[in-house]
Amino acid sequence: MALHNMQIQDTAGSGVYGTGVSGFSLTGCQISDTGDAPGEHGVYIENLTGEVSILDSTFQNAAEDNLRLVHSTSTAAVTIENSTIGPSGTEYGNNGVTILGSSTADVTVTVENSTIQGQQAAGLLTTFSGDSQQTITIQNSTFSGSNAGIDLGTNGSADLTFTVQDNQFTGHTRQAINIVSGEDATREAVVRGWIDGNTIGNASVDSGSLEGYGIALDLRGDVDAVVSVTNNTVQHTELQGIYAAARLDDDEDGETGLVDLTLTGNIVGPPDNNSAFPLPSVYGLNIEARHTTQMCLDLRENSVQGQGTEDIHLSQSDASQFMLAGFSGDGSVDAEVVSFIVTQNPGVSASVSKETAFSSADGGCRVP
Asked: Prior bond to 278 cis, omega within 30?
């Protein structure tokens, strides 16, 4: 199925709808003001298979999602390039791009040199469950003015592999980049990802995030996650510029969440913390290990500023294990852990909290 140089607008339902389509090409099209009720989208295709290309096209003002692709058993490779998506419709508007996977779906998505803007929910959202797989690459694109920028999610035994690289994010209400595994994620759920070279916010107050974080990793359940966050510039967020948590794996199934995180070369400015109900202070970077998770952290050569408190904070609580790459001190002594963090990240201040102790990561942390 191929649509080229078409203008589709003012439709009663979705602008383009299909199911079980094999191969799809949309080039040079303008799709706008489609649908007038929930469940109606700009382009909506279920169980799309094969090669999918969306090139040089414009989507805006769909009733719900501007582009929605839903997969259950299909295998597809989706490319979105040189396109502009957004704003959303005003009454039921949702995401710019929604990609959903379940059962045994295997979906690869590449977004490049595109603009996604003005969505009432996320610029781009994925949610995969069951035994599905998603491989997401987002690079050299601009995200602005939505509730969230990128929101990638997995649950059950679904795998997530992602690269978010060299993108610009401004004017979001919540997180610019949000990576989430659900509380029901099993050990078979494998997350591998890179967040590199992105710019979040600019010189203007609230430009990074009006109410949330710049980069957030909320790794819940028994997920096996290895993520690298490197060389990003984050400024003017409400809360921490970078926040990561491993948590909620204590479901009595004998499995634990495994999270290996590399944070190097990032520049994080002080949070704005200027809401109607500001916090007493906000760290610039905050990493938490909770419940029975195992966290391995390689934290080096970052420039971080907090607001009214230390720049970097690490927290170990409950029965979690929090291992530090390169650490050889006594993890039960706060001063030794703080000294290590400051040595590894020159110019920062740091604090820690613990329920038991930090420990050394023998052999270092895994990398994606």
From this structure: no
